[in-house]
Amino acid sequence: MVKRCIHVFLLAALALAVQVSPSMAWDIWQTSDYCQILDDPCVDLYEISFAYVPPSDFGDYGRSETLELDVNWSLAYFRDIARSDLSLGLSWQTRVFPSSTRLQLPDQLTSIALDSVMTWRYDTGQALQVSASPGIYSDGEEFGGGMFLAPFSCSLIHASHRRLSTQVGLLFRPGFEQTVMPLINVKCELDDFWLIEAGLPVTRVSYLVDRDWTAYGGFEWENTTFAIREKSDYNRDRATIEDFRLYAGAAYQVSDQCRAALDGGVIFGRSVEFKREVQGLDSDVGIDSALFVRLSIVAPF
After folding, report:
1. What's the first-to-final CA gap in the chain, in angstroms?
2. What CATH number does residue 276 fall under?
3. Alpha carbon distance 255, 298 (integer Å)
4. Range(s) of the domain holding residue 83
5. Residue 216 to residues 112, 163, 207, 248, 280, Cα–Cα distance (Å)
6. How far is it, in rounded angstroms, from Cα 276 to Cα 115?
């Protein structure tokens, strides 16, 4: 059911991106020297977000709320490195479970990764992009070799119009529960007010209300695996958190150097899956859907 919702949502967003602006539809296979995906004039230096998910049932094992912290920091950008552009960033993701329930959940799950992206651009309007995010994915207590993971991706980008660009590729994640994920992004600037980014694992629609305010809504799919050290004699080795989110919110331009955003919505299709099943505990446990709220602080590069 969840996968079907993803397909319907993605197809609807893609259809909207192409059909709302007839002036772009006929030109979709042409090329442009400006790429919506690569030439975005507003690049974030950092984004810090905090989210709260109220107590939810973890199967029949009890209830726990979830606290989430996400930090993304742009470190550097280099041009003409091996005939490509190279960007470096740091990402930090933490999920905290105040109650471990009878499932013996880890107190927290954390990932800290160095994000590197290399992009080769061509005069034909196409580009090849390769990225990697090697880092630590663990519960903060497991310090063995299993905590080091290095997901990477390869994708092609096509700029068919100054207002329309497409990216298609695959994200490869050795050591994760789901080793391959689709990487799709159709970015369409319909006019000076509407911006659509339709894709997986993230889709977002933004509307510029005025100089200071922006309204937005979107969809996110998260699936991340962490190495864990058990509190008891269990040896489940790894835990995978998966969920899907629909949300809406607004962002306010506090100053030239800071933007604040507040959004909320529903988080559904939630689960925690352990690599190994142990006696008395299921390896795959569904988590009830819930509402969530998120506050973000963003600064331009």
Report:
1. 40
2. 2.40.160
3. 11
4. 2-300
5. 28, 19, 6, 6, 44
6. 30
DSSP the chain: -HHHHHHHHHHHHHHHHHHS-HHHHTTTTS--S--TTT--S--EEEEEEEEEEEEEEBTTS-EEEEEEEEEEEEEEEEEEETTEEEEEEEEEEEEE-S--TTTT--SEEEEEEEEEEEEEE-TTSEEEEEEE--EEEE-SS--SGGGEE--EEEEEEEEEETTEEEEEEEEE-TTSSS-EEEEEEEEEE-SSSEEEEEEESEEEEEEE-SSSEEEEEEEEEEEEEEE---SSS----EEEEEEEEEEEEEEEEEETTEEEEEEEEEEEEEEEEESS-BTTB-SEEEE--EEEEEEEEEEE-
pTM of the model: 0.86
Number of domains in the chain: 1
- Output phi, psi for 4, to 5 deg: -65, -40
Q: Which residue type, as a one-letter code, is found at position 92?
A: W
Instruction: Please choose, from the candidates 236, 247, 222, 227, the residue with its C-alpha nearest in 3D space to the C-alpha of residue 281.
Output: 236
pLDDT in tens, the chain (301 residues): 555 555 555 555 555 555 544 444 445 455 667 888 888 766 788 999 999 999 999 988 889 999 999 999 999 999 888 889 999 999 999 999 988 777 778 889 999 999 999 999 988 889 999 999 999 999 877 567 678 999 999 999 999 888 899 999 999 999 999 999 999 999 999 988 999 999 999 999 999 999 999 999 999 999 999 988 765 666 678 889 999 999 999 999 999 889 999 999 999 999 999 877 767 777 889 999 999 999 999 987 6
The candidate with the shortest Cα–Cα distance to 122, out of 157, 152, 153, 155, is 157
